[in-house]
Amino acid sequence: MHLRDSLALQYAEVCDGEFQARPDEIFINPRHFRKLWNKGQRICRRLNDRSRWLRVSAHLGFKMAKSSLPGRFNSRSNKSRDLRALLGNLPLLEGEDPEAFDTFYRDLVRFFAPANIIEEIYVRNYVDLSWEIERYRRDLANFINANLYWGLLDLLQPLCDYERAQQLAKGWSTGAPQDTQTIEQMFANAGLSRDQIRAQTMAIKINDIERFNHLILILETRRDSVIREFDRFRTTFRMLHPEAVQDADVIEMEGPRRLQASSNA
């Protein structure tokens, strides 16, 4: 049999026969998928049939992404537990949801697909910083809401005497219906709204708000630095140690997705 015909048969077996005959094994065992992927890629390179490989690889990548991502993550569960033991407890404050943090962490691990312990540490740092940034953003919103009393008091002083303004502001803060209705009527006559309360509160507490934003900016800068260093390390490491990447346990799903996008273009 001619070499090209032999390769074509192997290609059909890899991309059609094996996938149809043993889909469960492919989904459950990421190593089998990697072996299948690499075998088909080698055959297609020798066949010089890149367009067909793009279609088939996109098909396999879609199936893998749809059915096997949890299994892929579980294949590294022991290493993830070791990493968590190394980095200590989760960076959570009282009232924060550990399950939400764990879901966020898993989603980013699936996206970045770290191939070694160093990349996992980079991903964990990225997760911790992102979680902290969102925490401070929530704290900023809560801080403004907690100080709306002072903004309202400042707006009421030109409309009534100080003691009456204090009484109405306290009633509004505690949700007293009569005081709330009185304030709404006064605001309607003066052409004001609840937006002015928030704006006046921010003007009064602008120094504190600026400190919040400065802290958030510092964390965002650190997070951007982590992702740049992660990308630099991954690029350099894979150039110097290609064999380590081939033997990695994690299958990067962004590759199949890019192939699928290329085949659709």
Description of the structure:
The protein has 265 residues and is mostly helical. The protein folds into three domains: 3-71; 76-143 and 209-249, no CATH class; 148-204. The protein contains 15 helices and no strands. It has helices spanning 3-21, 23-28, 30-47, 50-67, 69-74, 77-87, 98-112, 117-146, 148-156, 162-174, 177-190, 194-204, 206-240, 242-246, 254-264. Helix 4 (50-67) packs across helix 15, helix 9 runs antiparallel to helix 10 and helix 10 (162-174) crosses helix 11. The protein is elongated and about 85 Å long. Mean pLDDT is 75; it is low at 1-5, 16-29, 58-77 and 247-263.
Given the structure, what is the number of helices?
15
Query: What's the story with the biggest beta sheet?
Result: none
Output mean pLDDT. Answer: 75
Strand/helix succession = HHHHHHHHHHHHHHH
Total number of strands? 0
Structural class: mainly alpha
Report the portion of residues in β strands. under 5%
Radius of gyration from CA coordinates: 29 Å
Count of individual domains: 3
State the shape: elongated
Distance between the termini: 36 Å
Low-pLDDT residue intervals, each spanning 5 or more residues? 1-5, 16-29, 58-77, 247-263
Give the helix level as a range of percent.
Answer: over 70%
